[in-house]
TrEMBL record:
Co-factor(s): FAD
Sorted UniProt keywords: FAD, Flavoprotein, Monooxygenase, Oxidoreductase
Listed GO MF terms: 2-octaprenyl-6-methoxyphenol hydroxylase activity; FAD binding
Protein name from the UniProt record: 2-octaprenyl-6-methoxyphenol hydroxylase /2-octaprenyl-3-methyl-6-methoxy-1,4-benzoquinol hydroxylase
GO biological-process terms attached to the record: ubiquinone biosynthetic process
UniProt-listed SUPFAM superfamilies: FAD/NAD(P)-binding domain (SSF51905)
Family (UniProt): Belongs to the UbiH/COQ6 family.
Metabolic or biological pathway, per its Swiss-Prot or TrEMBL entry: Cofactor biosynthesis; ubiquinone biosynthesis
Amino acid sequence: MSRRGTLDVVVSGAGVVGAAAALALARDGFEVALVEPREPPPWRADAPDLRVYAFAPDNAALLDELGVWRAVRTARAQPYRAMRVWDAAGGGALVFDADAFGRRELGWIVEHALLVDRLWAALPAAGVRLHCPERVAGLEQDEDGVALRLDGGGTLRARLALAADGAESPLRESAGIASARHDYGQRGLVAYVHHAAPHAATCRQRFLPGGPLAFLPFAGDAAGLGGDGHVSSIVWTLPEAEAQRLLQSEDAAFLGELERAAGGCLGAMRGVSARAAFPLRRQLAREAATGRVAVIGDAAHVVHPLAGQGVNLGLRDVAALRRALARAGDPGASSRLARWARARRSENAVAAYAFDGLNRLFSNDAPLPTLLRGHALGLVGKWPPLTHALWRRAAGV
């Protein structure tokens, strides 16, 4: 492969994880190109994105290092100071509390569109070469580098290619990396709701036989939804048929079922947004890298949303890759990439199967697990060292 015009890194996919990877590696001195089929619409404060993340402290620190986090927080990021998890079948609650951990907050609720908007705004100054609208149409690689053929007719040559182009990643497929996939037969229904009781900067998750129902506190006033602490984003895991039925229900019927599913924890509710639903699955790439192609974010792993770790795991891929490539002359050198790939594949597999196990345990009404699981949550919640350890694991600190 000719070395003429060779970049250090080409990233395919400019969502949160891909844009963060391109920005991070460019800031570290690599020559980086970013390929994306569609320019994202500008984030609008008065049109909140239905897709939100429970953003962990380690990833906030990563974006802070990249000069982006302040812009995100200034625009809109709702801190949460507590998290309460319980089972509708009874038993105690598992509670995480910022005061008990000596922190101002446990994390932040942030919109997907806002993160993408602020990351894209930072790309030009970092020197990232943006190819948009373009998509990767083919891949060739040898010992020295990769050549990515673009559908517009051009070719990008680099020492390393990163597939950050989603769960159906064309670049991952072109590299010959297979994925193991399991469909849950569930959908995650999302919306914003106003509730009578204040959210008190607390994330709530109630396990139900069909799947967990989560309420994530949101800055409703800033989004024009009203509320002053009375608006939350919901993520309701439901069997496929139930999700479709509730999507098509009249507002009054939907809200009535939502209030019952919440067990009255936030009082009467009214809808303040549209509803949407997305299919849920577990998917893991068989390898995190092959040759000079590495997979990150959803291209590498898709996990159940019950623990809110999807984008957090993806950004940890980026942070770990950044450490692995520090001071590297050749970012695609096999030894560095192989060590990174083994560590990330292992960590992401542990997380994916742990969330899978929790979903199987709590999303059913079999007598034995129903009798045991709520009490188990309560027991864990009564042992502060274990509670703190669980939170530290989720927070990446």
